[in-house]
Design brief:
The chain is an alpha+beta fold. The protein has five helices and seven strands, in the order ββββαββααβαα. Strands 1-2-3 form a three-stranded antiparallel sheet, with no helix packed on it. It has a two-stranded antiparallel sheet with strand order 4-7.
């Protein structure tokens, strides 16, 4: 019988001392529909509230141009500088943004 051994310190798994690669992480989508992103943010707890509540407050403080871009957008691109600045201004890390995009893709 084969033995499955997981080394928590290294994160590696072996079967009878043969390396078993970790599963590949879910890829981050390059873009998501804005509605899907909003729904994902509503499901994401952020501080005292959900992430969407925080984003709405942050958007209200942005320039008219940024607000108009948001209003007119159909898709949100992961590498959009204004979007990244908005999220990181709320304290989000790159990994946090990736997680929200992955969730949005499932909406």
């Amino acid at each position: 019988m084969a033995r499955l051994i997981h080394n928590a310190a290294t994160g590696q798994t072996t079967i009878d001392n043969s390396f078993v690669p970790s599963p590949m992480p879910t890829p981050v989508p390059h873009r998501v529909r804005k509605l899907s992103l909003v729904r994902a943010c509503r499901k994401t707890t952020w501080g005292e509230s959900d992430l969407w509540t925080q984003i709405k407050s942050a958007l209200a403080l942005q320039s008219d141009e940024v607000q108009e871009d948001w209003d007119l957008a159909v898709n949100i691109f992961r590498d959009d500088p204004a979007f990244i600045a908005l999220f990181t201004g709320l304290g989000a890390t790159s990994d946090d943004i990736d997680d929200v995009f992955r969730l949005a893709e499932k909406q």
